[in-house]
Automatic annotation (TrEMBL):
This is PX domain-containing protein. Residues 43-60 have a biased composition (Low complexity). CDD domains: BAR_SNX, PX_SNX_like. Residues 29-60 are annotated as: Disordered. InterPro entries: AH/BAR_dom_sf, PX_dom, PX_dom_sf, SNX2A/B, Vps5_C. PANTHER family: OS05G0346100 PROTEIN (PTHR46757:SF2), SORTING NEXIN-RELATED (PTHR46757). Residues 292-319, 409-485 form a coiled coil.
Length: 522
């Protein structure tokens, strides 16, 4: 699988030293069959027509393809995004009219942790300068500069996940604590800077997230990023006081249970999930959106196929890198052979052969360069596959939001069923006593109040579930359209570069074939 964040293929480089290639020069005596200062020698009886070799100094001149510009087809459709400094990343809606949101991340700065740290070497952190240019009306200006640390990015990601459930929200970079310890510090900081910039630019091209209050606050720096609320959601769902004694707010039912503080709700929803799968009892409500279930299954298969294509693309990049390396090494070997043949030559024909060998060396080095250029373009185009693997993670998260919301509805419906059953039993027991049982009557009233609150919570949960369904539907439509456009542009760019560089390499070897065509004549 092509790596993700730190994202994309590694650009292929030849292991052959480029400095070594750049310093290749042969003696001037290769320019002519006669070496300066050498004695005239008799003609070699096996001599043949002497090809007209080019000067060896051209061995490292830019090859003939240098004037050709191979442009990716996908660049044509994102000129406006490039102008605005945006990546044409997966799921980037191109039709933003005249509004732009340009984001850059730069200037990593090591700062002292204000509260200290118990972790060895953890008393410092890096902040990054985030520069924003925009003309969007949601912002309170057109240019902003703010320093943010990685913790702020985590808070932004959490807030977006909380507020925009059901959307395909781009994933933030991982914290990568281990990498920060084993990598060179400068290398790690630069990789994180690039990853943060890519992440923020992906948020900036999402048609909904780019207009969010959370992203505006983050970019403007007008307020600190607040972490997610820490009240006990489970208690609020049940209509009782939270663990800190605060008043209940059943609107919290629209949020998923949070591990570490919502143990009761997590337990109840886990119990409901087990009952759905193994209880042998039909759930109070089931997912009946057949179209969605089919699309979900199709996307799961698409993700598997995408992973396989990604692996093959990585193999292609490695193969092109290897052949470019080998071609370069062969060119260097022919250069050394040419020098040896020239220095040891006795006949003019031997020097002529050395000149022909020089032409092969020249072609091999040019071909090696072409393979490097081709590989760079291959990485550029096929990296779209890697981007969509990241998109599929966001899709799965959005589907998880839907499943979580649906499980909450099922759990609340089961609670209502249980509460109503208890009320019926208490009413039946109370009716057997003349005048009624006062304690049972009080309990019934309490349960009815609980039913009222739970019913309200259920209604809110249903509305939240329907909202997430609608978000899923809209995002799937957007995914279909943009996936079609992105993959079409990727394939066009990949094919045109493969064809273009193949033609250039053919021209290089065709020139050598013409220069040595005399040897086939008898």
């Amino acid at each position: 699988m092509m790596g993700y964040e730190n994202q994309g293929y590694e650009v292929a480089h030849l292991y052959t030293s480029q400095d070594q290639m750049a310093s290749i020069l042969l003696d001037d005596d290769l320019q002519s069959p006669q070496s300066n200062g050498s004695k005239s020698t008799p003609d070699d009886p096996l001599s043949s027509p002497n090809p007209n070799p080019n000067s060896i100094n051209t061995i490292l001149e830019p090859p003939s393809y240098a004037e050709a510009v191979f442009r990716s087809f996908d660049l044509d459709s994102v000129d406006s995004a490039d102008i605005n400094g945006q990546d044409h990343s997966a799921l980037a809606t191109p039709s933003f009219q005249s509004y732009y949101l340009k984001i850059s991340v730069s200037d990593p700065l090591k700062e002292v942790e204000p509260s200290g740290s118990i972790v060895p070497g953890g008393g410092h952190y890096f902040s990054y300068l985030i520069t924003t240019f925009t003309n969007m009306p949601e912002f309170n200006g057109t240019e902003f500069n703010v320093r943010r640390r990685f913790k702020d990015v985590v808070a932004l990601s959490d807030r977006l996940a909380e507020s925009y459930r059901g959307f395909f929200i781009p994933l933030r970079p991982d914290k990568s604590v281990v990498e920060s310890q084993v990598m060179q510090k400068n290398e790690f900081v630069e990789q994180r800077r690039a990853a943060l910039e890519k992440y923020l630019r992906r948020l900036a091209v999402h048609p909904v997230i780019r207009r969010s209050e959370e992203l505006r606050v983050f970019l403007e720096g007008s307020d600190k990023m607040q972490l997610m609320r820490t009240t006990d959601v489970a208690s609020k769902v049940l209509g009782v006081k939270s663990v800190d004694g605060g008043a209940a707010d059943i609107s919290e039912v629209t949020q998923p249970a949070k591990g570490g503080r919502d143990y009761f709700r997590i337990f109840k929803e886990l119990k409901q999930s087990v009952a759905n799968d193994w209880g042998g009892v039909k759930p109070p409500v089931v997912e009946d959106d057949k179209e969605f279930l089919e699309r979900k299954e199709q996307l799961q298969e698409f993700e598997q196929q995408l992973s396989n294509v990604s692996q093959q693309a990585e193999s292609l990049v490695k193969a092109q890198q290897d052949i470019g390396e080998t071609m370069g090494q062969m060119g260097l070997a022919f250069v050394k052979l040419t020098k040896f043949e020239t220095e040891e030559a006795i006949y003019d024909s031997q020097r002529a052969r050395a000149a022909d060998t020089k032409n092969v060396a020249t072609a091999a080095v040019k071909a090696s360069r072409l393979y490097r250029e081709l590989n760079s373009q291959t990485v550029k185009h096929l990296d779209k596959l890697h981007e969509y693997l990241g998109v599929m993670l966001a899709v799965n998260n959005a589907f998880s939001d839907r499943s979580s919301a649906f499980l909450t509805v099922q759990t609340l419906l089961s609670d209502l069923s249980s509460l109503n059953s208890r009320i019926e039993k208490l009413e039946a027991a109370s009716s057997k006593i003349f005048g009624g049982d006062s304690s049972r009557i009080r309990k019934i009233e309490e349960l009815r109040e609980t039913v009222r609150v739970t019913e309200d919570a259920k209604n809110r949960a249903v509305r939240e579930y329907e909202r997430i369904k609608e978000n899923n539907k809209n995002e799937l439509e957007r995914l279909d359209k943009e996936k079609h456009d992105d993959f079409l542009n990727m394939l066009k760019g990949f094919v045109v570069n493969q064809a273009g560089y193949a033609e250039k390499m053919a021209n290089v070897w065709e020139t050598v074939a013409e220069e040595t065509s005399g040897y086939v004549k008898k």
